[in-house]
Every structure is written in structure tokens, then in C-alpha cells.
Amino acid sequence: MVENIEQVQILLGKALVSGSPRQNILNLTDIWKNSMTAQSRLTELPLPAPIFMRTTKFLSQTGDYSHVMAQNNASGEVLSGKNRKQLAELRVQASQLTQALHQLESDVLDGKINWSEINRGTQYQLAKEKPSTLGNNFNNIKDQLTQYPTLVYDGPFSDHIVEMEPKGVTGSDITREKAETIAVKAVNTPGTDKLEVTGDKSVKGKIPAYNFSIKDNNGHTYSIDISQKGGHLVNIISVRNVDNSQIKLNEAGE
Questions:
Q1: What is the DSSP string of 39-73?
Q2: pLDDT tens across 183-209, in order?
Q3: How many CB atoms lie within 10 A of CB 235?
Q4: Which of 16, 18, 191, 210 is deepest in the core (most CB within 10 A)?
């Protein structure tokens, strides 16, 4: 993942100095490819949810924005001054993110962080860890990703689309107890007669929610967010190993 993000940084620099639309189509397309690959590899790491979401958003927007710019170049449109300014800002963020990830990687290799122990934990447990080298590294990454520019363009990850107000959250406010009942029902499939529920955290943002960590008797751990308004299932992540793929990438896209 670090190598992919380094390539994003290098290619953004090349796109900024290149005056050739043909070369920029290649540079921008490669940025898109490396961003998507880094995003795929990111999902293999047991990162805290805020870091995961912010890094995913950065990679999604950087890749998608570059893809749209490549398409525009192919249609005869050259990069405008505004486009170049936004690419320059993304390059700065990619550089700072790379440095933070290198430090995290170094601490893992030096034995300061036990990745195996983290992998056996849950998102909720990781969030409760006392301040540590790990926490400092994650905070560095989080701080970097709060500074990258607003991107408004003709693409699905544009900020004007991402920041739209949610329209499906209806109903009255519910208690945490009611939300826990809904969360348990969401994972109470056949063979999961014993569920261990923990959680006292709330999720802020456009859809305020209650967060729960649920462990079943099959060894699966779930992190679940239930909206405070109406009790809707907002997010569910199952922390488990998936041995075999059942659908292909293009099927998942569809």
C-alpha cells in the first residue's frame, strides 16, 4: 500500500510538469490504478474505523478525480490552472501520508507494534487502547487526511455528492437499548445462539449512530452502527478471514 501511495505522489508530480496531453492521460490513469490498488490493500489492515474511512475517501477521490481528468484530456481538454492546483494539493497530502505510513511501517518492523495482536482484536477494542506508538501513528495519519482539498468535479466521489444530506433516515429518536436490540437482530443468524455485545460509543457525523461490537460463538466479530434516528442499520463490518471469493470484481461493481 505504501508503494502504491508513493507512486501516486510521483505520478501527480509528473502530471503537473507534463505539457503533453497524451503523457498526462497515461500519468493520470496510472494514478487512478495505484489509488484503487492501495484502497484494496488498505482493506486487509485492521485499522481503526476513522483512519480507514478517511484514507479510503482520500484514495477514492484522488483516483476518481485523476480518472476524470484523464478522460477530459482524451476528449481534447487540457488541464486548467484550477485542475493543476488541486493536483498539487493532492500531491502534498500524498507525500505527507506516505511519510506517516513509512513511520508506521518502520515501527512494525522494529517490533514496537505487534500487528498480530491488533489483527486478533476488534475495531472497538483498538479504539480503547491507551495512548501508544500505534495511537500516535494513527493520529498522525488522521491529522494529515483532514487537510486535503475539497474536490468538486464531474464524478461520483465529488465532495458536492459525498456531502449531500442523507434522505433515508426517518422515524423518531431511539434509545441505546433499542438500538442494541436492532444490532443483535442484524447478526443473529442460524448457529449464532451466543452473542457477546459491548459498546458505549456514539458515532457523530451526518447520520448520528450508536456503535456496538458483537462477537458470536463462531468467532466472528462485528462492528455495527445503528442510527439514533429511526434505528436504521447504517454500517456493519465483519472482522473475519474470507478464504475464497464468490464473485468477481466487476460483479461487485455492478
A1: HHHHTTS---HHHHHHHHHHHHHHHHHHHHHHHHH
A2: 988 887 666 567 788 878 888 878 899
A3: 15
A4: 210
CB-based contact 207:163 (threshold 8 Å) = no
| Residue 123: pLDDT over 50 | no
Could you report the per-residue pLDDT of 26-64, keeping only the tens digit for each? 999 999 999 999 988 888 877 766 777 778 888 888 898
Mean pLDDT of the chain: 80
- Match 489483527 to its residue by C-alpha cell: 119
Strands 221-227 and 233-239: antiparallel
